[in-house]
Known about the structure:
Largest sheet: 2 strands, parallel
Helix content: 55-70%
Structural class: mainly alpha
Radius of gyration: 12 Å
Amino acid sequence: MIWEDVTENKFKVFISKIPVFHRHIAEAAVRSLAEKSAALRNSSKVEEQDVINAFFSDVPSPFYSMMIRLLGQTGFDYKKYGFPKNNKS
């Protein structure tokens, strides 16, 4: 599936900031979930909201605070999409 250029670039920067031993797993999982999110919206392109949905749908609790910090550092505006939806942060 095609990714919006700005979103993909931010995603790549985000992944580069994850500890090296988790990068491949995180990248594969989030890419898959983001593409599913885009498909559910009947979109042919992955956008920022899809990546954010993917991150918030399946991040393990020990990595939640790091994810929030990295989303902000890489320019993902998760609050714009109503996240976080619970009191984890």
